[in-house]
Automatic annotation (TrEMBL):
Listed EC numbers: 2.7.11.1
Organism, as annotated: Gimesia panareensis
Regions annotated as coiled coil: none
Keyword Kinase appears in the UniProt entry: yes
A single BP term in Gene Ontology: signal transduction
Name of this protein: Serine/threonine-protein kinase pkn1
SMART domains: TIR (SM00255)
Sample GO molecular function, one term: formylglycine-generating oxidase activity
Domain TIR residues, every copy: 1-128
Classification of source organism: Bacteria, Pseudomonadati, Planctomycetota, Planctomycetia, Planctomycetales
């Protein structure tokens, strides 16, 4: 696991202690002065050792910290090491309005000025975990399916950016794949009778499972103990909480997903486009396959046994200029080779899931 050096001033200790605890619960090793420096130790030597042994330096930015001689010295030490080839990445974290030091202004910072608001800290921290290569996952011990945590809180929903509150939930990191679908199909062979002739010959790959009706997707969800997301859950997982129209931002970028412009003409493995991940680490939220939701034509949360049409989200390998805001309806009983599904859970239990 990576190690993060927390560069801060004493007046920001309440935030730093909270940050350190949350990082440690996610498996990140943390260097904090009060835990590492003992009575009689040389401050300069211990700080130098801590920086040298770290992969990242989190610069906590506040009016007090930018005036701190110690913080300035820690940043100077990291910059020196970057020059001589010891790569330590600086992660600016803004916790209060202040003048960001000149040499950090060109870096994207993590905005935690509202860190005491419920849900904000965890949402932003999940983004940080993604940036340093660690996604918070719950892995199902039965199916092997991976789920990422979507923290509670408000997000901007739809084209008009209406603010909607959702409780915490976990959603599939990837759409359902054929290899994950295969064990269920073996227990329910009648479901496979109406699939394309060559479908059963390709059940060992990482491509999305397609050609499912909504009731068949529901049958898998019941078998595995999952649910199909509502349009609101799906959209928050795809867009984050800041109202972006695509998982990576607002500007359409065809190289980040399997879309019509790529001219591939069929599905690709679900992990083929890491640069198209959502703020929470979900793959293929646009492109590859359109995805089912449990929301129907008349109500976002209708029981889909009563739904003649369901709403789909995202776009497929046939789509272009895809927006996460867009919904379209599809008949529940109709199959399609460009429609797939991912699932949600509420609270992963430790006897059914391994949390990483």
């Amino acid at each position: 696991m990576p190690r993060v050096f927390l560069s801060h001033t004493h007046s920001d200790k309440p935030f730093v202690r909270t940050l350190a605890h949350k990082l440690q619960t996610r498996g990140v090793r943390v260097w904090v002065d009060e835990a590492e420096i003992k009575i009689g130790d040389s401050l300069i030597e211990k700080i130098e050792e801590g920086i040298l042994d770290s992969d990242y330096l989190a610069a906590i930015l506040s009016p007090n910290s930018i005036q701190s001689a110690w913080v300035k010295e820690e940043l100077r030490s990291v910059l020196t090491r970057q020059i001589v080839g010891k790569s330590i990445k600086v992660l600016p974290i803004l916790i209060d309005d202040c003048e960001i030091p000149l040499f950090l202004q060109e870096k994207m910072y993590l905005d935690l000025r509202s860190w005491e608001v419920p849900g904000i800290f965890d949402a932003q921290l999940d983004r940080l975990m993604q940036d340093i290569g660690i996604d918070c996952c719950a892995i199902c011990n039965t199916t092997g399916m991976e789920f990422v945590r979507i923290p509670e809180g408000v997000f901007k929903y739809g084209n008009d950016g209406k603010k909607i509150y959702l409780d915490e939930f976990w959603i599939g990191k990837y759409p359902l794949t054929k290899e994950t679908f295969a064990p269920f199909l073996a227990t329910s062979p009648t479901i496979g009778l109406n699939f394309p002739e060559d479908y059963l010959e390709r059940l060992n790959d990482r491509h999305p499972a397609t050609n499912l009706t909504l009731l068949e997707a529901k049958a898998y969800a019941k078998w595995a103990g999952y649910s199909i997301p509502t349009v609101k859950q799906w959209e928050k997982a795809a867009r984050g909480d800041d109202g972006r129209h695509r998982p990576w931002g607002n500007v359409w970028d065809a190289i980040r997903c399997n879309c019509g412009e790529a001219k591939i003409g069929h599905t690709t493995p679900v992990d083929a486009y890491p640069n198209g991940r959502s703020p929470y680490g979900c793959y293929d939220m646009v492109g590859n396959v359109v995805e089912m939701t449990s929301s129907g034509q008349w109500s976002d949360d209708s029981d889909f046994l009563e739904i003649e049409y369901y709403f789909c989200k995202g776009g497929s390998f046939r789509s272009s200029n895809i927006s996460c805001c867009y919904n379209f309806k599809w008949r529940s009983s109709t199959r399609c080779d460009s429609i797939g599904v991912r699932f949600v859970i509420e609270n992963p239990s430790t006897d059914q899931f391994t949390i990483t």
